[in-house]
Specification:
Helix content is about 35%, strand content about 25%. The chain is built from twelve helices and nine strands.
Length: about 300
């Protein structure tokens, strides 16, 4: 029920004018490509900002921003997938609709396969599953729809979903890699976040080379050790580090010795301490941060 009109206007792939003078209502899905999502999170790392968990949530949150100037900075894209209403024109099939939308300048998903029978549907699902790693956008499934629009009217819908469409979900993608090192990232307040440096591995089309480990307690709780063979997997289109570690070596993580931000701390000691004072935290909180940075 939210009005996101101004935010949608910031998406460059939505045409501002159509080649034909028509009154049309369309439906689409906003997304962020794999490449753009990686670049956006890398920029947030450099700016010491919290990373987006996944492209889907980042796209949804960007679209719902109250300030369209913020949305404008996000690399949003959109695929139009349906004609909701149109005056003066009729279609016999959904495929015909999609071809017309492309003709009108709308961005339409190029991954669409017209099938004649059940076997071809199964082949199409398998084909998309095999190619999903190479797609420019993340997917976790494929949607099968009845193409004949008259048949859709006969089949109807339930109170929530159409009876002429069904989604097939692909199993999570898993890849093994090496946990090479654990480094520390220091924010402006002196908060230290351990970061897992991985042997680069491609999961769900995205190259994963590092991921956050949240804090030292998380590292100890999960018994995370350096040089272990671990697994990256895809969960609902999101690449995450598995909590299961297959091989262990006697090289454990110690935040006090591994942190390489001592120079940063000394340079910003007075400024950082002042921030803690302004937040009315106890002095031992500041001392705790200083020990982990300098010990």
């Amino acid at each position: 029920g939210e009005d996101v009109t101004e935010n949608l206007k910031t998406i460059k792939t939505i045409p501002q004018e159509l080649p034909e003078k028509i009154n049309i209502t369309v439906r689409g899905e906003v997304f962020i490509s794999k490449k753009d999502f990686e670049e956006m999170n890398q920029e947030r790392i450099e700016n010491e900002e919290e990373l987006f968990a996944n492209a889907r949530n980042a796209a949804a949150g960007s679209l719902r921003q109250l300030d369209s100037n913020i949305t404008k900075t996000r690399p949003l894209d959109i695929y139009i997938f349906n004609v909701q209403k149109i005056e003066g024109k009729e279609f016999n099939s959904h495929f015909e609709e999609l071809e017309y939308l492309e003709k009108m300048g709308f961005n339409v998903n190029p991954i669409r396969i017209l099938c004649k029978n059940k076997d071809e549907v199964i082949q199409a699902i398998n084909k998309i599953g095999e190619d999903r790693e190479d797609l420019t956008f993340g997917i976790d499934g494929a949607v099968v729809k009845v193409d004949d629009l008259n048949l859709r009217k006969i089949m109807g819908t339930t109170s929530k979903v159409p009876k002429w469409a069904i989604a097939y979900k692909y199993p999570p993608e898993k890849k093994e890699t090496i946990l090479k090192e654990i480094t520390c990232q220091v924010g402006r307040t002196g908060v230290i976040t351990p970061m897992a440096i991985l042997e680069p591995v491609k999961v769900a089309g995205s190259t994963i080379s590092k991921t956050t480990l949240h804090n030292e307690d998380f590292v100890k709780e999960k018994d995370i050790v350096i040089s272990s063979v671990t697994a990256c997997h895809n969960l609902n289109g999101v690449a995450v580090l598995s909590q299961l570690f297959y091989i262990r070596y006697m090289k454990f993580f110690d935040m006090r010795h591994i942190c390489r931000a001592v120079k940063y701390f000394h340079k910003n000691l007075r400024k950082t301490g002042g921030h803690f004072v302004r937040r009315k935290l106890k002095w031992q909180d500041f001392y705790y941060a200083s020990i982990y940075l300098c010990a």
